[in-house]
Design goal:
Elements lengths: L17 H14 L5 H44 L2
Amino acid sequence: MSEAVDTLDNSNKEKEGVGDFIRHTREELDKTTFPSADDVKNTTIIVIAAVIFFALYLFLVDHAWTYLLDGLTWLVNKIVGI
């Protein structure tokens, strides 16, 4: 079983000031990377294509179930004589 690792430095118990917080925040933001415009455009195209595909798929499945259930209802009504 793995054990949790304490990554916080608890030796310094005094509170951090606002200036220290902003400095640490800027240091962390310097470590981040942001996607390029081409990456954003390509992933947007992929997302739009996936949404269109699944919308069409669910549309067709919904109509197939409706057709199947209407046929089943018609059949049951013929058998019962309604």
